[in-house]
Amino acid sequence: MLEWTQTIRLYHWLRVFRKAWYWKICKAYTVPEFERSISSIRALRPEACRKLEAARFEKWSRAHCPANRYNYMTSNCAESINALTKTVRKFPITMLMDYYRDLIQRCLGMTNCNRWEKAWFSKRTLKGTNQKLVYPLPDPKLWETPHDLQVVLPHALVKPQPGRPKNKDRITSQGEDSKINRCF
Fold it and tell me: Residue spans with biased composition (Basic and acidic residues) (predicted)?
């Protein structure tokens, strides 16, 4: 048996959930997006869907609106982009650019190349890489190397001195004499 506080919370949650569901359907820009959203209501609450259909979609849905007033081409573009990128705005700029690329690809119906890449990481492909005979390398002492090879050494690393570096290009104050240092 539910306590009265649980019942109130459940009632409140259902009201908020229904409202969010309704607004998701209302704000869908494209007809396929609208159909995906309303199909979830059709499956769970067919009587609610019948009421929405009776009110006629073109009266309350952005996707079915005959006028261009609330279309994504006439609405505030910056506001639309901000709403799209709300979730990725707190991440580094590279992830934001990747999100924009993914968004444009989805809008244009383009695909990413991951579906062709996944086959390379299967067990069958991995086992297939070693099917042919692989000759092991002999001991490095037995390698044939030319005698005129030049030995290349890495450059010497100079460790920076600890502490804050001296500022040598500062502007002298008024009345301050410049010091002349000569090291012989």
Answer: 166-184
DSSP one-letter string for 64-77: T-SSSTTSTTTS-H
Which two tokens mark 153?
């050494």
Q: Is the pLDDT of residue 60 over 50?
A: yes
Residue 112 and residue 102 in contact, taking contact as beta carbons nearer than 8 Å: yes
Distance CA 26, CA 38 (A): 10
Q: Do residues 25 and 34 make contact, with C-beta atoms less than 8 angstroms apart?
A: yes
- Alpha carbon 59 to its chain centroid, in Å, reads 35
32 is written with which tokens? 């396929």
Q: What's the N-to-C CA distance of the chain in angstroms?
A: 96
Q: Are 29 and 61 spatial neighbours (Cβ–Cβ below 8 Å)? A: no
Reported as a single tens digit per residue, the pLDDT across 5-29 is 655 655 555 566 677 777 788 778 8
Nearest-angstrom CA–CA distance, 39 and 86: 26
CA dist., res. 10 & res. 27, Å (int): 26
Backbone angles phi, psi at 86, to 5 degrees: -60, -40
Q: In this structure, what token pair is assigned to residue 126?
A: 């991995």
Per the CB < 8 A criterion, the answer to whether 21 and 41 are in contact is yes
